[in-house]
């Protein structure tokens, strides 16, 4: 966060650099009581790092460590980070490994976080081939110079198909200014309401240059013609730093940095303006539950909770409970009560001991995009994505090159189709001021790899098992009976999510049984197709090895819940016992369990039967215990106990003779009778006895 905020206060870093350099060069003539040279050298390196001058920062961190290696071990860590951000991963790994080896001697503030982060930095270096060998599935375009200037251009916000809003400090030269006065202890009121007019005090003179909202427009595929956007959001007393719309585009959230007299420093605060009768109203600061006194709240993003459709505010804060510097938090908005819930931390699947910044929520595909330096990456802040929402987010995955580089990559956004968007970065060829990585510019990203699956749902007279997804011939299915009132539930299977799955969204299929669905590359999905009165059908599909644009036509047959039983007798138990054999658990996993997962609304009876050996009473007891064994196994696999019933029938319901016509034993018949049945007893209208087998 600091590396972004300091872009609007570069004069502080550059002035500090000149003072530090002067002191170092004139040290011999200065009194001994002034700071020691190693400490000042380290602070000079820090100033260069904060100004994104990685080359000079690396040089002076090395000098600081060489001057006092036992006291300035932390300089090794930052030197290695700077080498990584300069693209020298060989030197970076050597330096970071050296810090890791000696980190036990690092007793300075922040040491605990550095000891964790150094492992992440090294893991990022070791994963560099994975991050860079993505192929050419994206085009990255540096935007026109009418938009990008020589200072900072960040926080893109999509407005419509051919326009977007962004934040910029419009300057082509390095800006220096001197504050002649300081903020005094007064209540800050940036917008001119009746109350605010009485509270405003003179600002420091002269005013510093400020960031503003601008709008860029597209003309024949080229983004150009920058112009100011809505001056009611641009105040004369503060930088605007980021913003976002809600889905209806009648609310605009954005951040101001304003003075807090209680702690006597500036803090980020989130404001919102509402559009009424086509006019934007005076922005209002969000309540203290979001803008907690004494802490920053910034970088708003709006999502929607899938089950309630409630508006969710994602934002970044360093409030108590954060796991590192800045964390991503979220709060649900109650429209009826006009109230935000207490913010919750997005959790350790998202937040780290580093910084998590610039969230953007894709409501169509249920993806949270954000930047972080606390996960393995290519260098600096990398962009990551996580499927899901609020408390149910998958482990993040790195977007890799060319989205990410060895420097800072932030403010990633996409359009509703997911095929293009923007990001901000200080990569080359960003327009530079004093050095090559000083400043952030805006870039467009555009997909060149388009992947989709074309589903066709039809009525099947038997269970349609989809073992492999491939491009079927459409002509073979033109005579099939299409299904209306069907829906597809889409899940993503995250490799780093311990084999679990994250629900993405539910999509209705049209009345002709057709659905064309765009997919993300390098992901593995699970589709569950369902309709009331029919068994759901599910299949998995991976885009991980798809390197060419393609649309796969995949038919999906749904079979109604028949009154005719389906018999597959291979759930076995230990002889004369109720214990399931290992082979039986495999059968249950691939039949009963699978059906229960794919049809979450049904209630089922697990019925167990025996042959005619033993007494009636004994067989009833044994079969009941065997049915309970299956139920308990299903419960252990997280099936709700309320959906299950165990019933032992003993030898009362034969489906084959136990004896041959001559009175001798019939082993084959008795084996058929020793069976477990699966029977639907609730929720679905058309149900009867159904016995499942392989």
Question: What keywords describe this structure?
Answer:
disordered C terminus, Serine Threonine Protein Phosphatase 5, Tetratricopeptide repeat, Immunoglobulin-like, 4 domains, Tachylectin-2, Chain A, alpha+beta, 31% strand, 694 residues
Helix percentage range: 10-25%
Q: Would you give the CATH topology of the largest domain?
A: Tachylectin-2, Chain A
In total, how many domains does the architecture comprise?
4
Distance between the termini: 56 Å
- Describe the biggest sheet? 5 strands, antiparallel
The helix count comes to 13
Shape estimate: elongated
Q: β content, as a range?
A: 25-35%
Structural class: alpha+beta
**What's the CATH first level of the largest domain?**
Mainly Beta
Outline the low-pLDDT stretches: 4-10, 176-188, 194-205, 684-694
The Rg value, from CA coordinates, equals 32 Å
Based on DSSP secondary structure assignment, what is the total number of beta strands? 34
CATH homologous superfamily identity of the largest domain? Glycosyl hydrolase domain, family 43
Give the second-level CATH assignment, the architecture of the largest domain: 5 Propeller
Q: Looking at the chains present, what oligomeric state does this protein adopt?
A: single chain
């Amino acid at each position: 966060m600091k590396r972004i905020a300091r872009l609007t206060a570069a004069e502080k870093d550059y002035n500090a650099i000149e003072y530090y350099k002067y002191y170092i060069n004139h040290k011999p003539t200065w009194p001994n009581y002034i700071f020691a040279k190693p400490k000042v050298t380290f602070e000079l390196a820090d100033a260069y790092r904060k100004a994104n001058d990685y080359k000079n920062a690396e040089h002076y961190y090395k000098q600081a460590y060489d001057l006092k290696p036992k006291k300035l071990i932390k300089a090794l860590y930052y030197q290695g980070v700077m080498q990584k951000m300069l693209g020298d991963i060989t030197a970076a790994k050597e330096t970071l490994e050296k810090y890791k080896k000696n980190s036990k001697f690092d007793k300075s503030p922040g040491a605990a976080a550095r000891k964790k982060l150094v492992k992440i930095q090294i893991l990022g270096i070791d994963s560099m081939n994975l991050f860079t060998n993505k192929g050419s599935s994206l085009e990255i375009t540096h935007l026109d110079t009418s938009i990008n200037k020589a200072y900072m251009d960040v926080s893109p916000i999509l407005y419509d198909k051919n326009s977007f809003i962004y934040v910029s400090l419009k300057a082509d030269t390095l800006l220096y200014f001197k504050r002649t006065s300081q903020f005094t202890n007064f209540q800050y009121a940036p917008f001119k309401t009746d109350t605010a007019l009485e509270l405003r005090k003179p600002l420091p003179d002269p005013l510093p240059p400020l960031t503003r909202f601008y709008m860029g427009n597209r003309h024949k595929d080229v983004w150009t013609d920058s112009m100011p956007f809505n001056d009611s959001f641009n105040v004369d007393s503060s930088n605007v730093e980021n913003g976002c719309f809600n889905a209806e585009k009648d609310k605009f959230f954005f951040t101001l940095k304003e003075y807090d007299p209680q702690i006597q420093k500036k803090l980020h605060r989130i404001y919102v303006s509402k559009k009424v009768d086509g006019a934007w109203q005076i922005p209002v600061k969000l309540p203290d539950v979001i803008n907690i006194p004494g802490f920053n709240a910034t970088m708003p993003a709006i999502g929607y909770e899938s089950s309630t459709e409630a508006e969710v505010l994602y934002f970044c804060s360093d409030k108590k409970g954060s796991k590192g510097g800045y964390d991503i938090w979220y709060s649900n908005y109650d429209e009826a009560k006009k109230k935000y819930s207490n913010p919750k931390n997005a959790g350790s699947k998202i937040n780290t001991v580093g910084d998590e910044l610039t969230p953007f929520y894709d409501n169509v595909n249920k993806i949270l995009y954000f930047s972080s330096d606390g996960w393995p990456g290519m260098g600096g802040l990398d962009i990551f994505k996580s499927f899901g929402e609020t408390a149910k987010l998958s482990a993040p995955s790195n977007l890799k090159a060319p989205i990410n580089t060895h420097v800072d990559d932030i403010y990633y956004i996409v359009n509703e189709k997911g095929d293009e968007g923007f990001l901000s970065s200080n990569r080359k060829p960003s327009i530079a001021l004093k050095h090559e990585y000083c400043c952030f510019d805006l870039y467009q990203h555009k997909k060149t790899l388009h992947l989709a699956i074309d589903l066709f749902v039809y009525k099947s007279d038997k269970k349609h098992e989809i073992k492999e997804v491939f491009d079927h011939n459409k002509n073979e299915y033109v005579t099939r009976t299409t299904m209306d009132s069907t829906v597809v539930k889409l899940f993503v299977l995250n490799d780093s999510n311990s084999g679990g799955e994250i629900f993405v969204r539910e999509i209705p299929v049209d009345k002709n049984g057709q659905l064309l669905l765009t997919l993300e590359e390098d992901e593995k999905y699970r589709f569950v197709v369902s309709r009331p009165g029919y068994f759901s059908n599910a299949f998995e599909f991976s885009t991980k090895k798809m390197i060419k644009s393609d649309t796969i036509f995949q038919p999906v047959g749904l079979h109604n819940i028949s009154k005719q039983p389906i018999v597959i007798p291979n759930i076995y138990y230990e002889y004369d016992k109720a214990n399931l054999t290992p082979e039986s658990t495999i059968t249950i996993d691939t039949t009963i369990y699978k059906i229960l997962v794919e049809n979450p609304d049904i209630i089922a009876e697990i019925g167990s039967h025996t042959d005619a050996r033993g007494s009636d009473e004994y067989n009833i007891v044994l079969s009941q215990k065997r049915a309970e064994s299956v139920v308990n196994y299903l419960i252990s696999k997280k099936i709700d106990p309320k959906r299950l019933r165990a019933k032992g029938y003993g030898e009362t319901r034969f489906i084959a003779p136990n004896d041959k016509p001559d009175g001798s034993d019939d082993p084959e018949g008795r084996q058929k009778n020793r069976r477990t049945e699966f029977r639907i007893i609730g929720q679905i209208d058309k149900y009867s006895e159904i016995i499942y087998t392989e």
